[in-house]
């Protein structure tokens, strides 16, 4: 993978390509956990249907693992949401700096004061 920063348009905003790579990696991790959860759920269902005491006992550990995985997925999505919001705010601030409106006046970034000619 190339480590150079590049820009990709997303809904009219520019997002740093390295940030986009981070999102893709995180989504890949989430997808992997969800696939594992699907397998756990199938095994839990089979054990439950079998009604074999050892299989039912095994379900306790499988359900704990499933619960931990769900917590992990929720944490990943929370981190992604925070990162995405920060990336958009940064991108928006960068896009607004030095930008002109259609009437030729500068777009003001939050905290900037308009200078009078």
Structure write-up:
- This protein is mainly alpha-helical.
- The protein has two helices and two strands.
- Helix 1 runs antiparallel to helix 2.
- The N and C termini lie far apart (49 Å).
Q: What distinguishing features does this structure have?
A:
rod-shaped; 2 helices; about 120 residues; single chain; two-stranded antiparallel sheet; mainly alpha; disordered N terminus
In brief:
The chain has 117 residues and is mainly alpha-helical.
Number of helices: 2
Tell me the major beta sheet. Answer: 2 strands, antiparallel
What Rg is obtained from the alpha carbons, in whole angstroms?
24 Å
Can you give the helix content as a percent range?
A: 55-70%
| Cα-to-Cα separation, first versus last residue | 49 Å
Would you count the extended β strands for me? Answer: 2
Name the poorly predicted regions. Answer: 1-8
Gross morphology is rod-shaped
Structural class: mainly alpha
| Rounded mean pLDDT score | 78
Topology as a string of helices (H) and strands (E): EEHH
How much of the sequence lies in strands comes to 5-15%
Strand order of the largest sheet: 1-2
């Amino acid at each position: 993978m190339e480590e150079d920063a590049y820009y990709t348009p997303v809904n009219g905003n520019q997002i740093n390509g390295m940030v986009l790579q981070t999102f893709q990696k995180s989504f890949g991790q989430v997808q992997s956990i969800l696939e594992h959860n699907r397998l756990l759920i199938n095994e839990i269902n089979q054990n439950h249907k079998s009604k074999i005491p050892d299989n039912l006992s095994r379900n306790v550990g499988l359900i704990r693992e499933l619960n931990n995985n769900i917590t992990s997925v929720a944490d990943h999505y929370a981190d992604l949401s925070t990162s995405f919001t920060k990336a958009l705010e940064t991108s928006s601030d960068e896009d607004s700096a030095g930008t002109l409106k259609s009437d030729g006046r500068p777009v003001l970034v939050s905290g900037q004061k308009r200078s009078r000619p």
